[in-house]
Design goal:
Elements lengths: L5 E3 H8 L3 H9 L6 E3 L2 E5 H12 L19 E4 L4 H12 L4 E4 L3 H9 L5 E4 L11 H7 L5 E15 L20 E4 L4 H12 L13 E2 L2 H10 L4 E5 H7 L2 E15 L5 H11 L2 H10 L10 E4 L2
Parallel strand pairs: 4-5, 4-6, 8-9, 8-10
Antiparallel strand pairs: 1-3, 2-3, 6-11, 7-10, 7-11, 7-12
GO molecular function: DNA binding
Organism: Peribacillus muralis
Protein name: Excisionase
Length: about 300
């Protein structure tokens, strides 16, 4: 039976980076459901995820100079899960006539959505074990016949979430081949799942050797929380979630987190807008302030077809 995760009010406040008073106010208003264990209030992880997802769609429009509305500008969908994409959506809304909507699909599923005409901006962090390259090998296979541009959003560390003190002394991908470990996985199509599966393949580790491989969570925070709660010994994810949840992190790879946009006659203005935002000092400064992100290539063109 799968163990359900829950958080204290203090933990929720830390995850959302707000005060406990703010969380208590949301609970009082009925926006965040809680249950009690003795005198302590706790919140189900799934309820917190639902609150975050509901708050992201449509994306918040930050205050700023009022602009003329473009009546013919349709909403656009930004696919991916990193919090920087919410920031990008705010900048797009301030600098164009588009309303930015958020989809929280994993990298591969987001790319397929773009192929099917269901997303305008897709974020990617898909590792290819044969080339050691990120993203481009997958894009070339899926966006066949579609001209596109691939822009770097940022780089970040990916690796293993482990319990405090790293009791199993995990240091490499090969160390996952241990029948004493309980693993927690990401969903199929996510960048973290692809990274794991490729590392298992190139290190000749059968997936069946990972106890818990079939147990899935849908985001980095939930995987890190599963390790923190003791439901699992190890999971794959990014550094920032480890710090937010409070588990140790073993960095194993620097992943390139990119954005892909199709090059169409209707997308020319959007591509220009996104390029301008990514290379702007204010946008990069806000990313840098979040910590644990490398912005040295932010806004650079990784690949472009004509």
């Amino acid at each position: 039976m799968k163990q359900e995760l829950s958080y204290t009010i203090e933990e929720v406040a830390q995850l959302l980076k707000v005060s406990k008073l703010t969380i208590y106010d949301l609970v009082k208003k009925g926006e965040l459901p809680v249950f009690r264990v003795g005198r302590q209030m706790r919140m189900d992880a799934k309820d917190l995820e639902k609150y975050i997802a509901d708050s992201k769609s449509p994306a918040y429009t930050a205050p700023g100079p009022k602009r003329a509305e473009a009546k013919d500008a349709s909403p656009l969908v930004i696919s991916g899960q990193d919090m920087v994409l919410d920031l990008l959506g705010q900048y797009i809304e301030k600098n164009s006539g588009h309303k930015a909507l958020r989809s929280h699909k994993g990298s591969l599923n987001g790319l397929i959505s773009m192929y099917n005409g269901e997303a305008e901006i897709v974020s990617l962090h898909m590792f290819d074990g044969d080339t050691g390259e990120y993203n481009l090998p997958y894009i070339k296979k899926i966006l066949v016949g579609h001209p596109y541009i691939l822009l770097n959003l940022l780089s970040r560390k990916a690796g293993l979430y482990v319990k405090k003190g790293n009791p199993f002394k995990l240091a490499t991908w090969s160390d996952l081949n241990n029948d004493k470990l309980t693993f927690i996985n990401r969903e199929r199509g996510s960048g973290a799942r692809i990274l794991l599966d490729e590392q298992l393949r190139i290190n000749n580790i059968p997936a069946k050797n990972l106890k818990g491989y079939e147990n899935e969570e849908t985001n980095h925070l939930s995987v890190a929380s599963a390790v923190s709660s003791g439901a699992a010994d190890v999971g794959v994810g990014i550094e920032k979630a480890a710090k937010l949840v409070g588990v140790d992190f073993v960095p194993l790879i620097t992943e390139r987190y990119d954005l892909v946009l199709l090059k169409t006659s209707t997308n020319e203005e959007l591509i220009t807008t996104v390029k301008t935002i990514l290379t702007s000092i204010p946008f990069q400064a806000e990313i840098d302030a979040l910590g644990d992100y490398d912005i040295s290539r932010t806004g650079s063109v990784i690949h472009e077809t004509f």
